[in-house]
Design goal:
With 144 residues, the chain is an alpha+beta fold. Helices cover 40% and strands 37% of the residues. The chain is built from one helix and eight strands, in the order H-E-E-E-E-E-E-E-E. The protein has a five-stranded antiparallel sheet, with helices on one face. Strands 6-7-8 form a three-stranded antiparallel sheet, with helices on one face. A hairpin with a 2-residue loop joins strand 6 and strand 7. It is rod-shaped, with a radius of gyration of 28 Å.
């Protein structure tokens, strides 16, 4: 009878140990999956959202002639002409800015509103297509 109870205790302890080990492994794999999801969300937030914002602003322009790429204070500035005001989108010191002001005013890029923190920003224009690259991810926007 004693022999039988020792086997029961050992079996119960082994079963408990198996449960604890499986719970630990589940937590480890869950944490890795969560970390991967956070990294992918960070990439989306730092690239896709700013690109979508700029693209939306460009499409709000009346026509293709209302969007221009200008050099102001040595920076590539995307200038969007709207009724009575202009929108300037540019990057300075690893931050994407937007400046909205009335037409024909002096452009002061230091007074823009911070939109997003970015690593790199580049805008090029060729054949009615703007290529906007943020953090190495590019999007082409056709203006006709």
């Amino acid at each position: 009878m004693k022999k039988h109870s020792v086997v029961d205790v050992v079996f119960s302890l082994l079963l408990l140990l198996l449960f604890v080990c499986s719970s630990f492994l589940l937590l480890v794999f869950g944490a890795k999956s969560y970390k991967t999801g956070l990294e992918s969300e960070s990439v989306r937030e730092n690239t896709q959202i700013p690109l979508a914002y700029i693209t939306t602003r460009m499409h709000q322009a009346k026509n293709a002639s209302c969007v221009q790429l200008k050099q102001i204070d040595g920076l590539d500035v995307l200038a969007i002409d709207n009724d009575g005001y202009e929108i300037y989108i540019y990057a300075k010191n690893s931050v994407l800015y937007e400046l909205v002001q009335e037409k024909n005013m002096n452009v002061d890029l230091d007074s823009g509103t911070k939109l997003y923190t970015i690593d790199s920003y580049e805008v090029t224009y060729e054949s009615d297509v703007y290529s906007i690259c943020i953090n190495g991810v590019c999007r082409k926007v056709g203006m006709k």
